[in-house]
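Entry 14. Ran structure prediction on the chain below.
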Amino acid sequence: QVQLVESGGGSVQAGGSLSLSCTASGFMMRNYCMAWFRQAPGKQRERLAFIDSYGRTIYLESLEGRFTFSQDNSKNTLNLQMNSLKSDDTAMYYCAAGRPLFGECKNYDYWGQGTQVTVSS
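Output, structure tokens:
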């Protein structure tokens, strides 16, 4: 019954913006570690941003402050605002959920199908 569905992906020019959303069903986000990941062909999956067990938002440093992560517990929705997009941001973007282990969010058991983001030069 646990399900995550991403939306908002598409094709944009370099320098443009996109807003991604992830809606959860079958569980409440407030009780899980939530995160956004991405994976480009031939590259390893990266965790872009997540909420830790203390409720803090942690970002991947290489994003250079261009992305903003938010979680709306009342709507059970996760969002990722992406600005100043670059060609290197082209990837499949996923939201994921997992339970904290010893107070840390490292393993994610539930994944969405993903939404494609393509940035042209």
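The chain is about 0% helix and 50% strand. Will compare against last week's run tomorrow.
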